[in-house]
Design brief:
371 residues, alpha/beta, Rossmann fold, Dehydroquinate synthase-like, alpha domain, 2 domains, two-stranded antiparallel sheet, 11 strands, binds nicotinamide-adenine-dinucleotide, binds ligand LNCXM5UN, binds zinc ion, nucleotide binding, aromatic amino acid biosynthesis
Length: 371
């Protein structure tokens, strides 16, 4: 499959998402229009660096690069990780017209993008997403930020990259657990707005996960195209962009409850959150009663977590989870808002979810952990 480009037309913040194999060997060609001098500061983490930093730096040819290797994992996406990144960029004397490269999964993309956003009040950055999740979702759309003790992504900025290079070959080294977590966000696109894509995933998901490059590229391209279309309509989430948050009110509360740890990866929380959002939709009589089972069946067929019962260790009770949801950025006038669905591919924003139905969905899901 040849190289594909999704253009994100955001006026003076427009950029291309380039998707394909072997892209990093060609990096100077893609970077050239964005360079004022032949220099790039790379923010990455040690796991990705051990596998790919050498090849990335070699591929840069005459472009001089230096790199900061942060600790891998969600635990780095916080104030300390931000301070470390920004101080290093200042040590490196990165100037306003220079380019920062975020080389890694969603953690590095979100953190590196935010560091670039606040450095000297805004330096341009390029996303080089190395995980499936980052290629289909986090590298596109300009949401950058960090977690705080109050919750997920609560401090951040909209800061669009100037370029995204999604090299499909990088996914070959991704551990299966991380690949499937990223697949949670891929399924989300089908569920929120494209029933035909969900059907395609039901048919092709297993081969895609097994390593088929053409199928992977199709899924990345379709996801990025869907995300770009939504972001262009509503860059700063005043309305429609919230659809991309399907499953996330549940997910973010669960990530907070599990301490942003290996117990629950973001994409795993998204898959469980999507299943719960469809359950809630069915209980409110908004979508057919059999739809939540179909959603779960596909996730199960892929070997993914679908229920609270799949999360190891203790979880807080329903009331405590609902309290955690109170910090969600979609909250308006103190009311929770959820992304619910009338069917697969037909999501919408709902601000009148009855508290007792929400509590019942969570109580039942928590009770199933004890069975
Ligand atoms: N900004 C957005 O729009 C957006 C969208 C979705 C998710 N996110 C954020 O993204 C983060 C999750 O991203 P993630 O799942 O990529 O997590 P991650 O960055 O922690 O990467 C997942 C794991 O895969 C490893 N890894 C990454 N690329 C690899 C490769 N090519 N080969 C081998 N190992 C590799 C990492 O070391 C890590 O252990 C969360 O913080 C989430 O909130 C942001
Ligand atoms: O890009 C968006 O908009 C999304 O909601 C994509 C989500 O997958 C992503 O996890 C995002 O970071 C969540 O946004 P938040 O505003 O709820 O923190
Ligand atoms: Zn997400």
């Amino acid at each position: 499959m040849s190289i594909q480009t999704v253009h994100v037309p955001l006026g003076d913040r427009a950029y291309d998402v380039v998707i394909g194999r072997g892209l990093l060997a060609e990096a100077p060609r893609y970077l050239a229009p964005h360079l004022h001098r032949d220099r790039v500061a790379i923010l990455t983490e040690s796991r990705v660096a051990a596998l790919h930093l050498g090849a990335v730096q070699a591929g840069l040819g005459d472009i001089v690069s230096s790199a900061l290797q942060l600790a891998p994992g969600e635990g780095t996406k916080n104030w300390a990780g931000l301070a470390q990144s920004v101080e290093w960029l200042l040590d490196e004397k990165v100037e306003r017209r220079d380019l920062v490269m975020a080389l890694g999964g969603g953690v590095i993309g979100d953190l590196g993008g935010f560091a670039a956003a606040v450095l000297r009040r805004g330096v341009r950055f390029v996303q080089v997403p190395t995980s499936l999740l980052a290629q289909v979702d986090s590298s596109v759309g300009g949401k950058t930020g960090i977690n705080t003790r109050h919750g997920k992504n609560l401090v951040g900025a909209f800061h669009q990259p100037v370029l995204v290079l999604a090299d499909i070959d990088l996914l070959d080294t991704l551990p299966r657990r991380d690949f499937l977590a990223g697949y949670g966000e891929v399924v989300k696109y089908g569920l929120l707005g494209d029933a035909a894509f969900f059907e395609w995933l039901e048919a092709n998901g297993p081969a895609l996960a097994a390593g088929d490059h053409a199928l992977r590229q199709y899924a990345v391209h379709r996801s990025v195209q869907m995300k770009a279309d939504i972001v262009v309509r509503d860059e700063t989430e005043q309305g429609d962009r919230a659809l991309l948050n399907l499953g996330h009110t549940f997910c973010h509360a669960l990530e907070a409850a599990t301490g942003y740890s290996n117990r629950l990866l973001h994409g795993e929380g998204v898959a469980i959150g999507c299943a719960l959002a469809f359950e809630l939709s069915a209980r409110m009589g908004l979508c057919p009663q059999e739809t939540p089972s179909r959603v779960r069946a596909h996730l199960r067929a892929m070997g993914m977590a679908t229920d609270l019962a799949d999360i190891g260790g203790d979880l807080p009770d329903a009331d405590a989870l609902i309290t955690l949801m109170g910090q969600d950025k979609k909250v308006q006038d103190g009311r929770l808002r959820f992304i619910l669905a009338r069917d697969i591919g037909a999501a919408f924003v709902c601000d009148d979810v009855p508290g007792d139905v929400l509590r019942a969905v969570l109580d039942d899901a928590l009770a199933a952990r004890r069975d």
